[in-house]
Write a structure and sequence with these properties.
2 domains, 12 strands, alpha+beta, tt1808, chain A
Amino acid sequence: MTLPRAAANMVGMGNAARRLATFADLAALGGDARCEVLGGEIVEKAAPSFEHADAQSAIVGELKSPFQFGRRGPGGWWLGTEVDIELGPHDVFRPDIAGWRRERVPDRPTGRPVTIRPDWVCEVLSPSTAARDEHDKFRVYHRAGVGHYWIVDHERAVLTVYRWTADGYLVALRASAGEVVRAEPFDAIQLDVGLLLGREPLPEQ
């Protein structure tokens, strides 16, 4: 996608001269634009490959029924995909999946952008934006107080679960395809890591 000239100008200017972008600038691009605001700069969000989309949909499929609807699980969550979330005036992200605990957010998050910080975020890595997810956005999520951050690397077949601490994110779990785990904050049930990565599920025992 080619950014409109006004947005491109904000990306290209030097830090001293450029105006920091906000959600208003993102909204001006139109609802179909796959963009985020990171540190006041409009950045493009990678178009998903089939593998990326498969992993994203598999994670939603495994979590939404038990944790949002309470079917064969404890419920207690709101889960959404590709939701614009304002974590600060100049940081507006569209994570692959995000979740809010109902004990903290009793009513379904609404509007665009959502201004209530999520309790959990999951990013499925794409080659063109992996560094952003693992470094830049990583720091913003921690600063905003997002309790758990999952990074799903379908190419390396690894799920990494980070837990928030005051000193930084702590690796709570790192698991590969072929493992069945209890992954915070959804450790009330067992999860097939391969399935979360978009692979075939393990044979039933």
